[in-house]
Amino acid sequence: MASRDGLQTACSVKERHTALEAVLGSATFLRNPRLGKLLSYLCAKSFAGEAASLKEYTIATDVFGRPADFDQSTDAIVRVEMHRLRKKLKEFYEGEGRDQPIEIVIHSGQYAPEFVERSAPAGWTNDGVSEPLIPAEVPEIDTRSRQRRRWILVSIVAAAVLFAAGVWINVRLHARASVLSNRPPESGVAVPGAGLPTWNPIRLLCGRTRSQRDREGNEWGPDAFFQGGSALEAPPQPIYRTRNAFLFLGARSGDFTYKIPLPAGIYELHLYFADTSYTPGISMEGGENTRFFNVSVNGITVLRNFDIIASVGPNTACERVFKDVQPDRDGYLHLMFNRAVGVPLLNGIAILPGIPHRMRPVRISTQDSAFTDKSGNTWSPDNYFLNGRVIAKFGIVSGPVDSQIYEGERYGNFSYAIPAAAGTYTLRLHFAETFFGPDEQGGGGAGDRIFDVYCNGTALLTRLDVFQEAGARHELIKTFHGIEPNAQGNVLVSFVPRVNYAMVSGLELIDETPQ
Hints:
Helix content: 10-25%
CATH architecture of the largest domain: Sandwich
CATH topology of the largest domain: Jelly Rolls
Radius of gyration: 27 Å
Oligomer: single chain
Number of strands: 28
Strand content: 25-35%
Number of helices: 8
Structural class: alpha+beta
């Protein structure tokens, strides 16, 4: 193996595993589990002698759960994540891993990792074991003794790795067993006393018999706990404002109920709808007033005469959020769907741990993967958008907040419809100009990008010029208070160009209700 100085060096299997474990156990990668998963996969293939099989397609399907029809020309997930991985490896070896004797290097344009012996820093012996250098007047430590200590160290690390792997496998098996043990009979009627662990969110694919994992890594289980209605399946087709179209291609339809066992506590309920039955035809008419129904939670009506198409349009994801949800006195959450005109339709149910009186924070990054910023906040991948395009930005952005927020950008004429429960919210928008500027690709500067931002039809920002306010490669955060969702249960944020394209890198929606 070639080291950085061009010499050929040998790197044992134990040394490679130790190098990998040092990276995966670091704070840098614990904050970025998605990148840890990617690195583990690449190294596992390398350890197995299968580095030649590492291709963009196999990485996309094996690591990121992309479907068999993955098209790398339209989905840059692998290239974006590989860039982030190389950046985080560099950050690790320049920081907390600066004393590591072996460096994992993945060259640009390649996927196979290399394990490179690094130059010994001050305070290291020639064999790479971290020990004080021995003064000339002190007799040299016996070679066998040093080797013995080295093997003990390696054995301890290897044992720790095996133990961690065993714990991980046990947790996964336990979680899997928990889900399986709580499945209802084939009829879909809930089993009294059956419940899911409070730490395990419930996600159900209505009308489906198989589980599936979404692009954020969450597992959705098959339909359960229902009574009545029938299962529907729609052919593959575009579903707007979602990254997970599969969620809306199956449904439970008719008059039906759900009786979901829940431990005592506060929960956040998400209901998912999309009407694919009525699309504009020759007469250019839609499907309004052809299907509307009522939805109740524990006997209280929460949606009355609910018309999916009137709320969001045809073939469009509709997500309604309800906070402060609790099981009824019998220990079940009761959902009821009753027809008014046409038949009720439901695609999915998610029940998440709730925050009393507040909706869980929403943080959206215009990137294809989740990450945790330096403040410990989790940012979700891009979602809820309509129109515009996304690009990855690899330059440095200055500012007090984690620059990783600005590694992506949605630009064009576009909008976000962020689902929100009733209440008032703080909306924060994150911008950074990385295209226009004297030293940037687009040249110019002030006046080269100007756009407006609206929220639920009201202007928040008029003639915004990010470069003029912050300069090139500096973050600009705009904060707005007292934001309320519209009648359709969304905070609709629209970005409208005036000169060149509008753009944004991140959106935050934080409930202002006191706990």
